[in-house]
C-alpha cells in the first residue's frame, strides 16, 4: 500500500489548470466495492469534456476525482465483493463521477473490476476501459442477434471501421480476433496506425473516390459498420452495407443530425444501433467487459507505437498537461497518468 497516497481533484469546471493534486485519506470500501492501488489512470475524451463542463452536470460537494478507467492492484475488499482477491491485478472501467481513478487509491464498484492477465501490462489495462467496452458493444450484434465470442464468430464477415482513435483501434483488434476481415476509413495521418492495429485494408477518407475504393474492397457490402461520425457518413454507410447489415454509431463527431434515406435502409433490412456506453445496463456492459477480457487473455489486444496506439505517460503532478495533450488538435495515442 502507498505510504502517502495522493489524489487529483477539481472543484470547478474549466481548463486543465483547475485540476489540483492533494493528499488523500486511505479510503474504506463499501460492501460491494474494492480499493484498487492505481498504477495507471487512463484519460478518455469524456474525461476532458467533463472537466471542461461540457456534460452539463453539477459538481458534487467535495469536487470530482477525474478519469473513469485505470489498472492496478486490489488492496482491500468490501464485505460483499465476490470473485476478487487482495493482491489481484485488475483493469477497471466506467468507475463513476465523484471517485475516479486519478488517485493512488481508488474506490471502485466490484462490478466494474476485471482481472488483468499476467501477459497484459498496466499500460494496456488502463487503455482498455470505455474504448474497448464500446468497441465490444459495437461488434456485439449481427443480424440482430447477440454473438457468442469465439475466433470464428464473425468468420467470413466484413467489418468497416470509420475513425482512427482508441475505439477504432480496439474495434479492429476485436473484430480480427472474432474472425472478421476489417477495412478502415480514416484520415491520412491515421492510416499507418490502423494498419499497425491489424486492419486488412485502409482507405484515405478524404479521397474523392473513397466510396468507390471502399466498395471495391468489399463488393458484397459490409456486414458490420462501426462509425464515429454518422452525421457525415450515414448515407455512405447505408450504400456500403450488405443485406441485413448492422451499423453501430458510437459518437457524434462532425454534427448531431443527418438526413437518412429510410427506403434504402429498409430495402436492405439494415439494423441501426446507437451506442452510448455509460448509459447501458450493467448486464450489457458486463458482456462487453467479459468479451474484452476473453480477447485480452488470448493476447489479441495490444497498445504502443508498434501496434498503432502510442502510449504517452504523465505523472500525477502533470495531469493538467495530460488533459491539455488530449485536447490538442491532432493528438493520437493514449494518455495515461502513472502513479
TrEMBL record:
GO terms for molecular function: oxidoreductase activity. Residues 14-337 form the Enoyl reductase (ER) domain. Keywords: NADP. Pfam families: ADH_N (PF08240), ADH_zinc_N (PF00107). The keyword NADP applies. InterPro entries: ADH-like_C (IPR013149), ADH-like_N (IPR013154), ER (IPR020843), GroES-like_sf (IPR011032), NAD(P)-bd_dom_sf (IPR036291), Zinc-ADH_QOR/CCCR (IPR051603). Gene3D superfamilies: Medium-chain alcohol dehydrogenases, catalytic domain (3.90.180.10), NAD(P)-binding Rossmann-like Domain (3.40.50.720). PANTHER family: QUINONE OXIDOREDUCTASE (PTHR44154:SF1). This is NADPH:quinone reductase. It comes from Flaviflexus salsibiostraticola. The lineage of its organism: Bacteria, Bacillati, Actinomycetota, Actinomycetes, Actinomycetales.
